[in-house]
Amino acid sequence: MKHAPLWLAVLLSIFLLPSSVTGGMIRTSITTRQIVTARGAIELECKVRNKGDATAHKVRVSLTLGDLVKRYDGLGDNPAGGEIRLTETLMDPGLLPGRYTAVIRADFEEQTGTPHHAFHFFEIPYRTAEMPGPGLPLEMQTRGPDFNRKAFWAREGSVALSIKNNSREEIRLTAQLYLPEGFSSKTPDRVFLLGPEQATLVEIPLRLESEGKPLNPYHLLVGCDHKDAHHSWDLKGTIQVEEHPVWSKAYLVLGGLVMVAVFGVLLFRRPRSPISAN
After folding, report:
1. Torsion sign across C-alpha atoms 126, 130, 131, 134
2. Count of beta carbons in the 10 Å neighbourhood of residue 125
3. What residues contact residue 254 under an 8 Å CB cut-off, 6+ apart?
């Protein structure tokens, strides 16, 4: 046969060409080591490791410590098995004595340009011997939302913070929500006052995006500067994403009632046959 049919040539090209190579995975691990010197300086070392088998491109790192934010851009690429090391000495950080929850955020991209981020939370006890008194008498609890991916109308939710002030003084608090990939919030930060012996519920709205996973841990950092001392709490919770059919007994009952109502309307509107005279 001199010329193979067109369909045969297409099949041969599909099966004989090498299969496409699937993209690798980027697995980011962040570790920190910190020392507070006798003069109040903070010596910080941070390592961002890539334990995956694909390169993390355009790595950027930021440090959040109280009101202090420092950014480290242009760190380049982090290959598979690679490590990016940062060192920083904060000579005069301007921090009150207290226990701080610091946050390292690493941003990077896949080869295709898809962005990703990873967080690392750690505590820095800063000159705690100079704190004027014990911790604040606060009760706090957080709760994450549950999403059903198959319910197209339920893409919005909120992370709730219930908090009670057991002291006899007014306290000013801040709340910062750190979300995993697959979720977004237009207003992740809150500032609010809590009166003496007052309880309140703070809700921070968020949205489920297409890449949200079944179980998603989040961090809600609550901070307070009170009586020349800093206090912070790292509250952890989980956002659940499930996939359940929207049909349930309630929908079936509602559908049956609608059908009965429609049938009744049609029955009453049915024209009556004329009565013939004998």
Report:
1. positive
2. 13
3. none
